[in-house]
From TrEMBL:
Keywords: Membrane, Transmembrane, Transmembrane helix
Species this chain originates from: Actinomadura nitritigenes
Segments crossing the lipid bilayer: 6-30
Protein name per its UniProtKB record: DUF4229 domain-containing protein
Amino acid sequence: MAGVSWVGVSVSLGFVGLAVLAWCAFRVYLGVRRFGRELERTRRRLAPKHSALRDELSELQDARVPQAPRDGVRSS
């Protein structure tokens, strides 16, 4: 008779453990969604600055005058 009561206790503890894991997984899911929204908001805020920097970089690369290759330094 005593062995049968342990079965009920172990099954109920298993369900409680699964409930705790489900709650933790739900909290992680909410955190990941919130983090994704924050990343998207940051990406939208930085997009104009990123575009301006990319344009400035391309202007600097276009303005750079190519130089003819020289002899350079020779070792003796």
